[in-house]
């Protein structure tokens, strides 16, 4: 699939200059809540929950916070209104397609915040389905390093993965259908240092951004969206050169 890592590369480069926000704790805690609600509360038997807990611990979230999030998901902790997973879609400057994954207790509030963010940054919030057809939902396992690509290929084939890509910083990303993500991660962990496991929306095609003003509008929109408390993840189908990205986020 073309363009697998383009958005991931942009996200990584942006992260190098982004200020770490306390929102990360909120995002990871909410992911635990939803995972606990969608499956059994025991991490050993709930891959989504186990992965969410691992990410929370890696980010330094205290165990008490993790336990509280699990209790909220299990319904044994008074959490007020329940959270639900809602996906929103829209267009940014240059006709770029944008998917927003949210966890919210108030759809109307979240939609209003998103609509304002789009309108102030050269885009517009669309109807459900307006851009999701341009993306495929995939499981992704990131490998921090490897010494032999043949060994990696052998493991990828054994695990029933679809493809893999080498990143610019010497890592690898392996792609599979969502239902096979747990199996893939277990097999790769046997021989490689796995740095991340996630479900990701991947664009079928990407839009090349070359105009500085459009680039600035897009990145400002994405920063605004990601700063919203209800937003868990933002994905877009554009790419730009490292040189333009460096100028834009400088």
UniProtKB/TrEMBL annotation:
Annotated TACO1/YebC-like N-terminal domain residues: 5-75
Keywords: Cytoplasm, DNA-binding, Transcription, Transcription regulation
Subcellular location as annotated: Cytoplasm
GO BP, sorted A to Z: regulation of DNA-templated transcription
GO (cellular component) term, any one: cytosol
Gene3D superfamilies in the record: 1.10.10.200, 3.30.70.980
Domain of life: Bacteria
Main localization, broad class: cytoplasm
GO molecular function, one term: DNA binding
Domain TACO1/YebC-like second and third: 83-238
Similarity comment text for this entry: Belongs to the TACO1 family.
Matching HAMAP family: Transcrip_reg_TACO1
Protein name, UniProt field: Probable transcriptional regulatory protein UH38_17800
Organism: Aliterella atlantica CENA595
